[in-house]
Amino acid sequence: MGGRRAGKTSVLAGLVNTMVNGDIKNLLTINDVTVLIPGQESLTNKIEHLKESVKSLKGKTFLVDDSKTNSFTTHNLQLEIPGTSNNMTIEFKDANGEFYESRASYDTHGGSPISKEQIINAVKEADIYVIAIDTPYLMEAVNPRNELCDESINMAYNHVDDIHSYLTYIDDKDGADAKLVLFVPIKCEKWVHIGEADKVTQRIKDVYKTVFKALDDYKNLQVDIIPVETIGAIEFKEHQTAMICSNNDFVARKCCVLNDETEVRFSDGTSRQIMQDDIIDEDPEGRISEFHSIIRPYSWFHVTGNEYAPHNCEQLAYYILQFVLAKYLFLKNLEAQKKEKEKKKKSWWKYTKIVLIAWFSIPFAIIYWAAGKLIEKMGTISYEELNALINSIESRGLIKHNTEGICNVKKSQLGI
Ligand SMILES: Nc1nc2c(ncn2[C@@H]2O[C@H](COP(=O)(O)OP(=O)(O)OP(=O)(O)O)[C@@H](O)[C@H]2O)c(=O)[nH]1
Ligand SMILES: [Mg+2]
Questions:
Q1: Terminal C-alpha separation, the chain
Q2: How far apart are CA 47 and CA 321, in angstroms?
Q3: Which domains does the chain have, with CATH numbers?
Q4: pTM (2 decimals)?
Q5: Mean pLDDT of all residues in 173-194
Q6: 159 Cα: distance to centroid of ligand 2 (angstroms)
Q7: Which ligand is nearest to the CA of 97?
């Protein structure tokens, strides 16, 4: 979840890339088994695109690519224990930021409008929620030297209220169906590099205070903040008023105006003197959404490194894997308890009245129903294999805690 062009697909691409090609390979074989639908960009392509932008934009100050995800897409990763045929599939859903504007009903694929209901259903079905937060708007809103950005722009761009209302549809089935919510600031290279990752985390705690408070009421829900650099080599430089330039030679191009309105800088980082036939206006696309009249400034970035160098994408992968595995173990335990209770229930049946059956059945029915249904969903990996996997992730010290802005906000009942 997250605002338009906040970096959701880039995070997902980085996450899948580290799962398939990173150190996790030693523990699990992970394959991207997504069947692409027409018009859907593969995550491998997305990574290639990000790598290319680091190379081609070196030395320039530019706007990040503005092409949006054009459909509600699903990516499937298959996890397999090496040397066995036991596997489980994780399904990732990704949509463009427009979907999270709560009043939106967008025509995105084949003419069928995606409605609020579809997002709500996706929220109800999911186990894990990754909230991608655009760090430049988050941090610049409280930068006293930046007159172009304020809290209303940050709140609207990052859809803080919309995401809050979508998250209220999470149902942890009274604790039986554990959930994980990850708040992931992205485009955060600048703040990480100057040692201010903790300030980013603190801002998230302030801005999402009411969201955290609402999530606190769940019995079995884990909340973490994990700053991730999905590119690593591109830093936020400045905000500039969102402008658009056209003239006889080209149609409208996104730009900003510099040096006492004598120079224009285009989104690809090229700049030149303003010419007589240039028509320069405020960019209507700078509006935060079709429902907001607020115009946001554009975030300009510059390349600081030589290559694509994502950082902490693997943490996202470890947090997700550890949660999926621990949840599976938790459900297996519930199932074992269920069998035990059923045994007892049979022997008690002979001696007790119907009242007692109701006493046994009602409180546990939801929990056991959930356990059975979820275990089906979670594949064929055995209890022992899961236990061994979780132990090796922990014993290798792969998961970072309380460093680089990574912090736990709320623990679930899964014991991780
Ligand atoms: N500096 C920096 N730029 C990033 C990062 N992640 C993404 N970007 C840039 O932001 C652009 C938009 O990212 P996407 O991943 O397409 O954003 P999105 O949220 O999926 O966009 P929609 O699906 O269209 O709403 C990318 O093309 C990158 O150029 C990051 O971690 N750092
Ligand atoms: Mg996207």
A1: 24
A2: 21
A3: 8-235+305-327 (3.40.50), 238-303 (no CATH), 328-397 (no CATH)
A4: 0.89
A5: 95
A6: 15
A7: 1
User: Which of 16, 17, 46, 64 for a ligand 1 pocket mutation test, highest count of atoms within 8 Å of Cβ?
Assistant: 64
Asked if 16 contacts 314 with a C-beta cutoff of 8 angstroms, the reply is: no
Contacts of 33 (CB under 8 A, 6+ apart): 76, 77, 78, 89
Single out the residue of 115, 104, 134 nearest to residue 1, CA to CA.
134
Sign of CA dihedral 210, 212, 216, 221: positive
Give Cβ neighbours of residue 407 (< 8 Å, ≥ 6 apart). 201, 224, 225, 401
**Best mutation site among 4, 5, 54, 65 for ligand 1 pocket (most ligand atoms within 8 Å of CB):** 5
* pLDDT of 359 strictly over 50: no
Asked if the model's pLDDT at residue 174 lies above 70, the reply is: yes
Structure tokens at 133: 């937060």
Question: HSE-up of 334 (CA within 13 Å, CB side)?
Answer: 24
Determine the distance separating the centroid of ligand 2 and the alpha carbon of 406, expressed in angstroms: 24
57-75, pLDDT tens digit by residue? Answer: 888 999 987 677 766 788 9
Q: Which residues contact 399 (CB under 8 A, 6 or more apart)?
A: 315, 318, 319, 322, 393
Amino acid making up residue 37: I
Pair 215, 173: CB distance under 8 Å: no
Contact of 57 with 303, CB cutoff 8 Å = yes
